[in-house]
Amino acid sequence: DSGVTQTPKHLITATGQRVTLRCSPRSGDLSVYWYQQSLDQGLQFLIQYYNGEERAKGNILERFSAQQFPDLHSELNLSSLELGDSALYFCASSVMSGQENTEAFFGQGTRLTVV
Amino acid sequence: GQNIDQPTEMTATEGAIVQINCTYQTSGFNGLFWYQQHAGEAPTFLSYNVLDGLEEKGRFSSFLSRSKGYSYLLLKELQMKDSASYLCALTGGGADGLTFGKGTHLIIQP
User: Fold this and answer.
1) What are phi and psi of B82, to 5 degrees?
2) Which of B98, B102, B105 to mutate to probe the A interface, most A CBs <10 Å?
């Protein structure tokens, strides 16, 4: 158990809908990262938050957004869903902002299926 | 940007040794990670290299050469449970997230 909690574990929804994925980082970790992993792609970095502030953006679509709350949990919002958004979405957390030698701990992921 | 290349798939025999290579092109990075990922599960940390050279951790070792843009993960005394994907990732270089390669799917045969 990495200490990172993601809910829900599975989500099935229809095209055009909106969903929210939730992540609770390890106790004491200030950074939260979101990744998307589809069958034909590796882990794609979406976005990072550090202590409530957006820190870095990767390949995140405009239909997707995220935030980190004062208690450091984070939510990833996916809207106007398309079939191609079906993937495993991972959250990871680390102590520091990412520039230092800090291991990122991954949650078990949310498997999103868009039908 | 950062570009990472790994072999797609490798096969090895239980009890043997296997080396998984990772080459990269980047304008700069802080360090290189190796993660293990079983199908449908979360990646788990294996090793981290920031300086050139070999880092040993039990049956797993990782090597980095910055001048050659090259790293490898060495797995010894292979066990069936080592069948998994092995992901090479860079940290730093403008993006604070980890940039992952597509991973090497390692199949262990009896």
Assistant:
1) -80, -5
2) B98
